[in-house]
């Protein structure tokens, strides 16, 4: 739009329209920045995860341990149980309280898929609070 600058009294007329062009320029620059930064946020690199050195949490009075042995047999506490009898053994150990945390231990030689199958058995039995147990690593100074 054109404005007449020569009105005789020396005042310029106010323009009541918003100039959108700088706003669009800023938005386009931000869009380019996000388009460049978004692929950098995804990770497709295989890594060896380190052992945890987090502070150990206090244990409950009577923890329920579910152990996956190297021969893929299961035991609740010190009793060896079959996979079909697992829900009944857990109900007996927890007095039927499904919100009890189950501490899952597995030998290093047990494949990850087997651990996931045991976790699926726990979920099917109604036990959703599962804690994975590992060796505590001493923190280095």
UniProtKB/TrEMBL annotation:
One of its GO terms (biological process) is protein transport. The keyword Cell membrane applies. The chain crosses the membrane at residues 26-47. GO terms for molecular function: transmembrane transporter activity. Keywords: Cell inner membrane, Cell membrane, Membrane, Protein transport, Transmembrane, Transmembrane helix, Transport. InterPro entries: ExbD, TonB_ExbD_1. The keyword Transmembrane applies. One of its GO terms (cellular component) is plasma membrane. It is found in: Cell inner membrane; Cell membrane. It holds the Pfam family ExbD. It is a single-pass type II membrane protein. Involved in the TonB-dependent energy-dependent transport of various receptor-bound substrates. Belongs to the ExbD/TolR family. The accessory proteins ExbB and ExbD seem to form a complex with TonB. This is Biopolymer transport protein ExbD. The lineage of its organism: Bacteria, Pseudomonadati, Pseudomonadota, Alphaproteobacteria, Hyphomicrobiales.
């Amino acid at each position: 739009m054109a404005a007449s600058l020569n009105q005789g009294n020396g005042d310029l007329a106010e323009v009541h329209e918003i100039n959108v062009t700088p706003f669009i320029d800023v938005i386009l620059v931000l869009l380019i920045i996000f388009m460049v930064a978004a692929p950098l946020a995804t990770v497709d690199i295989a890594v060896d995860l380190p052992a945890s050195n987090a502070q150990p949490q206090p244990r409950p009075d009577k923890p329920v341990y579910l152990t996956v042995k190297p021969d893929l047999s299961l035991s609740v506490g010190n009793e060896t149980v079959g996979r079909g009898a697992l829900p009944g053994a857990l109900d007996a150990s927890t007095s039927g309280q499904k919100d009890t945390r189950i501490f899952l231990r597995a030998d290093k030689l047990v494949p990850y898929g087997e651990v996931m199958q045991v976790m699926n058995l726990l979920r099917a039995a109604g036990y959703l609070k599962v804690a994975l147990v590992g060796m505590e690593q001493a923190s280095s100074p």
